[in-house]
Design goal:
Distance between the termini: 37 Å
Number of strands: 0
Shape: globular
Radius of gyration: 17 Å
Structural class: mainly alpha
Order of helices and strands: HHHHHHHHHH
Helix content: over 70%
Largest sheet: none
Number of helices: 10
Strand content: under 5%
Length: 227
């Protein structure tokens, strides 16, 4: 399993996750995003033979975890989400030029951050560490200026004909798959082409500089949370 292959899986999952904003069905968009992020974590753990940590890391990659607890709270959230869905979906589609590249970057950084911890054997397998990692990730991501990279990724994908329809087909496969930890994302050809093009953008010096900046902010946030 090469680094290039793993990065390709991150990017492909990011493209499919980003396409979830175009799915006109309540809750399905959230489910696609969560499955794509779980896939990224699963493949990254597998690359370092640490698959057993997948469930322990759920607080790190599952954005819905921790917002509400218990079946009653979850049930109470349903009517509100249904009521707001048309507005939320309209905004999501209208802001797709900005939102799609951001979701791809978020997905890639999720895998990349986890890989850094695996490389340096910094994972404890404890839920409190995963929770702190999630908080540090969100804090660092919000502070980043992705303006240039957003425009570049958006332009790159615009040159790949049919990527959006292909990504939505791939999203359907993700939903239908019984194995959320499959070895490879079952993506359409256009998704793979788009992922290859985006990978080239990620290798540029300016992108690597952004990655380094994110790493520094993440590490600082983690250090502060341990004090």
């Amino acid at each position: 399993m090469t680094k290039a292959w793993l990065t390709h899986q991150w990017v492909a999952a990011g493209i499919v996750s980003a396409a979830s904003r175009f799915i006109p069905v309540p809750f399905v968009d959230d489910l696609v995003r969560n499955r794509c992020r779980r896939f990224v974590v699963s493949r990254t753990l597998a690359a370092y033979e640490q698959e057993a940590m997948l469930d322990d890391l759920e607080p790190f990659y599952d954005n819905d975890r921790g917002w509400f607890s218990g079946a009653i709270s979850q049930a109470a959230k349903v009517p509100v989400k249904l009521l707001l869905f048309p507005v939320r979906k309209a905004v999501s589609i209208a802001t797709s030029v900005r939102g799609v590249p951001l979701e791809i970057m978020r997905t890639v950084l999720l895998g990349r951050t986890l890989e850094r911890y695996l490389k340096h054997e910094q994972l404890s397998g404890r839920a409190d560490q995963a929770t702190r990692m999630h908080a540090a990730f969100e804090q660092s991501f919000k502070r980043m200026d992705f303006q240039v990279i957003k425009a570049t990724i958006s332009d790159t994908l615009s040159g790949v004909g049919g990527w959006k329809a292909a990504a939505m087909k791939s999203a359907k496969r993700v939903l239908e798959s019984e194995d959320a930890t499959a070895k490879e994302l079952e993506s359409e050809t256009e998704v793979d082409i788009g992922a290859n093009e985006v990978q080239a953008v990620l290798d540029r010096p300016e992108t690597l500089q952004l990655f380094a900046q994110f790493d520094q902010r993440f590490d600082e946030a983690m250090a502060q949370s341990s004090n």
